[in-house]
Amino acid sequence: MRPEAPLPPHAAETIGTFLRAHALGEGLDGVVVGLSGGIDSALVARLARDALGAEHVLGVLLPDAHVPAELVAETEGYARGLGIEQRTVRIDAIEAAFRAAIPEVDDRVTVGNSAARIRMTLLYALARERHRLVAGTGNKSELLLGYFTKYGDGGVDLLPIGDLYKSDVYALAEELGLPRSTLARAPSAGFWPGQTDEGELGAPYASVDRVLRRVERLEREEEIVRSSGVAPATVAAVVARVRQHRHKRRLPPVAKLGLRTVGLDWRD
């Protein structure tokens, strides 16, 4: 997947500087990265290793029954190849306890979101023990579309690739020589067998990103249809999704009572 626009120059160097500035010093000793076998987490782990040194990166794989054993082994091997410390912690028992506590909740998206929040809790527990930050793996496409779990994989300290569209992620991953198997794997949140990002979004990321780049430039919907070559229904769906999920990109709203209010007019 090639991006419509050139990859931002010095992307890897800029992200490396960002990681060093935020994750080392002042009592911090690096990052924890949740590894999934997908391209985003593989890229973040590689960038963090290159920027911080392998001794400052912990890669954590948190599989459940939906994650194939072959993918677990491949991801563990990738972490070993990077030279970073790696841990695998199965979350099946925690998921089972969640389902047992509220058995009436069986919607597969709700259950999948709960798994993402379980993973977030474990990543933060490990990060605190090591005085590290949780490096998120969300990209710009996912952030704009709201294609992440609030307080799940969206619950992180840093977003190193958060200003790279998904097509940029592929371009940078190719530039850095990430494994072909990772590049070829269909993006998936892994909520259920056969689930894919593009299946849920209803369009390939190449088309979605063409729309999102124009949304970023504040083009009107009819202009996006003309300039992107993407079907009007897809353009409308993407634009609507960006609007619909604004709440995921904002702090929770606060009822204003004081002189300065967090999230409104008190900005640190």
Task: Describe how the helices and strands are arranged.
Elements: H1 11-23, E1 24-25, E2 28-29, E3 31-35, H2 39-52, E4 57-61, H3 69-82, E5 85-88, H4 92-101, H5 108-130, E6 133-135, H6 140-145, H7 166-176, H8 180-184, H9 197-201, H10 205-216, H11 221-228, H12 232-244
Parallel strand pairs: 3-4, 3-6, 4-5
Antiparallel strand pairs: 1-2
Helix pairs in contact: 1-2, 2-3, 4-5, 10-11, 10-12, 11-12
Number of strands: 6
Radius of gyration from CA coordinates: 19 Å
Give the terminus-to-terminus CA distance: 38 Å
CATH class of the largest domain, anyone? Alpha Beta
Count of the separate structural domains: 2
Q: In which range does the helix fraction lie?
A: 40-55%
> Any idea what the CATH architecture of the largest domain is?
3-Layer(aba) Sandwich
Largest sheet: 4 strands, parallel
Short description:
By secondary structure, the protein is of the alpha/beta class. It has two domains: 11-199, HUPs (Rossmann fold), CATH 3.40.50.620; 202-268. The chain has helices spanning 11-23, 39-52, 69-82, 92-101, 108-130, 140-145, 166-176, 180-184, 197-201, 205-216, 221-228, 232-244; strands at residues 24-25, 28-29, 31-35, 57-61, 85-88, 133-135.
